[in-house]
Design goal:
The complex is a heterodimer of chains A (260) and B (124). Chain A has 11 helices and 2 strands; from the N terminus they run ααααααββααααα. Chain A is mostly helical. Chain A has one domain (2-259). Chain A has a two-stranded antiparallel ribbon. Chain B has one domain (2-120). Chains A and B meet through helix 3, helix 4, helix 9 and helix 10 of A and helix 1, helix 3 and helix 4 of B.
Chain lengths: 260, 124
């Protein structure tokens, strides 16, 4: 079970864990979210270790936005107490559907990089990233809107035990106009911190069970190692289609379960 | 300037990797102890009960882990895992201090404060 789960997560992120644990193994959603948060930290920190070194991620942008995501995560984790399980399931399903849609759509790099932005300049966010042709500099835009979206991403992360990578990339990519490489790596860098804020609250509340988190965490770590290796040789487009399909089915199941 | 920033990145990268590996080692060790003592785990995850007090607090987890209880060891590993991004943020505070970038010293301190708050107090 752990291996299967891990391999899937290595391919597609934490969104799979909660539906799989609740729908297939009948685990209570609170335990499932706790275990998922823990594994999200594991994969994010592992991957971030590699990305930071390559110099793609923008630490300033990440740190600044983490104020929004961690606050959001605390709000989300507090909300869990007040929402009924069926409501959480439905929200989860909707978010899943969105991420299935997001991973289906092709990415176009917003290379139309316009002039500097006042707030971003004041926060010294403009930076450069390595390309085959040397360093490519870029400007950051839309800081307030990005900050707002990041708060939403944080709430979802704390509420559902996911990394909300899709929302984070949306905020940095579309709103703040960061280059794709930079937004994905910076988002990964932020996911761990956001999940840690949620996990802290879950741990104190007794939602993180060692017997359940152990196989999930180890499986996910192993799976992300294997997954990364498998991805290197696989047809990404086909994988992405299959994965979106799986997510969509899980999403419908979660919503159906919530409505029942 | 560029040199020190690169150096910082490298330390940060090593910090993250060490944290994850250390956490995995504790979780694995705890898992072995746990499964050796309870070959067929009886815990029922269908019904939510919540963990006992000793597996919820930082001091309680250390106590359980030192007693070499399987569940305590796993929980300590998970605690290390949660602490890894927090350590990274703490390290960033130092890095920005070093660069005399006061705006970002403040930004990172806010994030660090929120994280410590989530783990140690309030909103329970």
């Amino acid at each position: 079970m752990a291996g299967f789960l891990g391999a899937l997560t290595g391919l597609g992120g934490g969104v799979v864990i909660v539906p799989l644990l609740t729908l297939v193994f009948g685990v209570d959603i609170h335990y499932a979210i706790g275990a998922a948060l823990v594994s999200v930290i594991a994969t994010s920190s592992g991957a971030a270790a590699a990305y930071v070194r390559e110099g793609y991620s923008n630490v300033r942008v990440g740190m600044f936005l983490e104020i929004a995501t961690t606050t959001g995560a605390l709000v989300g984790a507090a909300l869990v107490l007040h929402l009924r399980v069926s409501v959480i399931s439905i929200i989860f399903g909707v978010v899943l559907l969105y991420s299935a849609y997001a991973s289906m759509t092709e990415h176009a790099d917003s290379s139309a990089n316009t002039g500097p932005d006042r707030i971003a300049t004041w926060l010294k966010m403009d930076s450069a990233y390595p390309t085959p042709n040397g360093l490519q500099s870029y400007h950051v835009r839309g800081v307030p809107q990005g900050f707002g979206l990041m708060f939403v991403a944080g709430v979802l992360s704390g509420l559902l035990g996911i990394g909300s990578g899709a929302v984070k990339v949306l905020a940095m990519d579309k709103v703040m106009k960061l280059p794709f490489k930079v937004s994905t790596t910076t988002s990964n860098f932020m996911i761990g911190v956001t999940a840690a804020a949620g996990a802290g609250v879950y741990l104190r509340r007794g939602y993180i069970d060692p017997g359940l988190a152990m196989p999930v965490m180890l499986g996910v770590l192993a799976g992300s190692l294997i997954g990364a290796r498998m991805l290197a040789g696989a047809k990404v487009k086909v994988l992405r289609m299959v994965f979106s399909g799986v997510i969509a089915v899980l999403a419908v199941e979660m919503i159906y379960n919530g409505l029942k | 300037m560029e040199k020190t920033e690169q150096r910082m990145d490298e330390i940060m990268s090593r910090l993250l990797r060490t944290g994850v590996i250390l956490a995995a080692v504790f979780v694995l060790a705890g898992g072995v102890v746990y499964l050796a003592r309870h070959p067929t785990p009886v815990t029922n995850y269908r019904v939510f009960q919540g963990e006992p007090e000793k597996l919820r607090t930082v001091s309680g987890i250390f106590h359980e882990a030192l007693a070499l209880h399987g569940r305590g060891l796993i929980q300590l590993g998970l605690l290390i895992l949660i602490a890894t991004p927090i350590a990274r943020v703490a390290f960033s505070v130092v890095a920005f201090l070093y660069q005399r970038d006061w705006t970002y010293v403040l930004v990172t301190l806010i994030v660090l404060g929120l994280l410590v708050y989530s783990l140690l107090g309030g909103a329970g």
